[in-house]
Amino acid sequence: MRLTNFTDYALRLLLMVQEADGQLITIEQAASRFRLSRANLMKVANELTSHGFLTGVRGRSGGLKLAKSANEIRIGDVVRAMETDFALVECLRETNDCTITGICRLPRVFRRARQAFLDELDATTLADVGLRPSPDMTSAGSRPTAESARPEAIAASADRSPSEFDATLTDISGPSSRPYDSPQRRAQADATRDRILQAVADVLDTSGGEEALFDEIAKAAGVERRTVFRHFPNKTELLRAFWVWIGARLGPQILPSTLDDLIAMPPRIFDGFDAHENVIRASLHSPSGRAMRLETIPARRQSFAHIVETGLADLAPTQRHEFLALAHLMVSAAAWETMKDYAGLTGLQAGRTVSRALTLLLTALRSEPRDATRTV
Questions:
Q1: Which pTM was predicted?
Q2: Is residue 21 part of a domain?
Q3: Which residues neighbour 268 within 8 Å (Cβ) at sequence distance 6 or greater?
Q4: Which of 48, 118, 125, 201 is 20 to 30 Å from the Cα of 101, by its Cα?
Q5: 223 and 303 share one domain
Q6: In terms of domains, do 104 and 9 share one?
C-alpha cells in the first residue's frame, strides 16, 4: 500500500507548522522548503484546514498554525482525511467483479493488515514524530527557521526523545482524568488502566526491553488493542505513565525525609528492585526509563540536600558535599545493578552494604578535623 502524494504533502506541511512552534507559516515558505508548487500546497492546506488540523490567519502577516495541540493530532486521522481509497485489492472496493469472491480467504487477511496499519498510525501523534533539530542550526538549543532547515529533514519521522515530554509526570501518574457518567464507570476505567500498566510490567519483566507491541500488552492485560489506545494514545504516553506507576509500587517513601530514613532506605528499595529486575534494568538502559529518572532528579536533589543540611550540620560544608555526592551514587539503581552483576549480591545484601557504607562514611567524616578551606 502506498499513500498518495497529497497525503505525503499534508504530513510534511503539518510537521513544518508544528516545528514553527506557534509562529505562522506561509504557503510560500512551505513551497520553497519542500520544492513543491504553491498551487498544490494551497490545496493541501485548504483540506487540512477544513478537517480541523490547521487554522489559517488572513492578512499581510498571516499564515498557518496548528488548530489544536500536536498531541491531539493523530497521524491516523490525518491519513484517513487525506486518502480517498483504502481498498488494497478489488474485493475490498464497493464495486467488485472478482470471480472468486465468496470462496477466497484473502479479503479478511487484507482487512486485518489494513486495520493493523491504521492502528499503528492511530497510536502516533504529530508530537511523536516532530522534526529533529536541523544540523545547520546556528546555535545550540535554538529551533531551525522555516528557511534554514534542509529539505531532507522533512523525511525524518523518528520518535522524539522521551525527555521532551510535554506534560509533567503528575499529569499522568494518577487515575484517568477522562469524564465519566458515574463513579462506577470511573472506577472501572481506572481498574482497566491499572491492568494495562501491570501488563506493561509483565511484558518488560519477560523481555527486559521496550520493544513490546501494543498487541502483546493488550493480550497480557486481557483487553482489546483499541482499549489500550483509548487510555494511552501512543507509546510515549504509555511508557511515561508506566514509569510513574511502577515507581509508586517499589516501596513506600521513595524519597527520605531524615538522615535515618536515608541510611535505612537502601535495603528496602533494593529488595524491591529484585522483584522487578528486568523493569529496573530497563529504567537504566532504555530511553523512556532514562527520561523518567531525569524527571525525578529535581525532587531527589531537594530531598537529599535538605537531609544533609539539617542532619549533618556538625560537618563542614565540604564534608556535607562529599556525603551528598556519595549518597546519590550509592542509593541508586545503578549501584544496585553493579553490586548484583559484579559482586553477585542480592538486592537485600546490596542494600545492607550501602547502609553500612554510609554509616562508616559518616563516622569517618565526623572524625576528621573541620577544615572549611578543603575542596571536594
A1: 0.45
A2: yes
A3: 251, 351
A4: 118
A5: no
A6: yes
Q: Do residues 20 and 146 touch, judged by C-beta distance below 8 A?
A: yes
Q: How many CA atoms lie within 13 A of 235 on its CB side?
A: 21
The rounded distance, in Å, linking the Cα atoms of 11 and 75 is 8
How much is the mean pLDDT over the chain?
78
CATH number where 198 lies: 1.10.10.60
One-letter amino acid of 79? V
Q: What are phi and psi of 276, to 5 degrees?
A: -135, 50
How many structural domains compose the chain? Answer: 3
264 and 236, same domain (yes or no) = no
31/45 Cα distance (integer angstroms): 11
Domain that holds residue 329: 259-367
3-state secondary structure of 67: coil
Kind and range of the H or E run holding 57: strand 54-57
Q: Is 79 part of any domain?
A: yes
Tell me what percent of the chain is helix, strand and coil, each rounded to the nearest 5: 60, 5, 35
Residue 209, pLDDT score: 56
